[in-house]
Write a structure and sequence with these properties.
- It is a single chain.
- This protein has 125 residues and is an all-beta fold.
- It has strands at residues 2-7, 10-13, 18-26, 33-39, 46-52, 57-59, 67-72, 77-82, 91-98, 114-115, 119-124.
- Strand 5 (46-52) and strand 6 form a beta hairpin.
- 33% of the residues are buried.
Amino acid sequence: QVQLVESGGGSVQAGGSLRVSCVVSGATYNAHCMGWFRQATGKEREGVATVFSDGETRYTDSVKGRFTISKDNAENTLYLQMNSLKPEDTGMYYCAAVTQRTFWCDPSRTDFPYWGQGTQVTVSS
C-alpha cells in the first residue's frame, strides 16, 4: 500500500551538507509516522529521525542540532537535511513508514512495516 523511494545520496567531505529525499506513493494519508534510518557496513540499522502526522519530530542524540527531518505534503516527499556531516554518518539511509495512528513514532523503534531501498551516503575526512 505504501511505497517509498529514496534519492539524493552521495559523497561529501566532513563538515559538508547533504539532503536525502523519499518520495511516497500509495496510501500517503495513512503514513502517520515516517522516519529515516541508516546502516553502516557491518553494523545494525539505527534510527535517525522521525516525524508524525501532527508535525512532531524526534531525533537520535548523535544527530540533534545537525539533522532536520521535514515533509512536503504537496509533493508527497520526506526529507532529511544533514549538516556538519561526520565520517560516522556514513551508511545506507532508508526511509520508513507506519500507518497506525497510535504508533509510538520514535527513531528508537525498528518495527516500521514499510521501507524504501535506501540511498548511500558517504562522508570522507
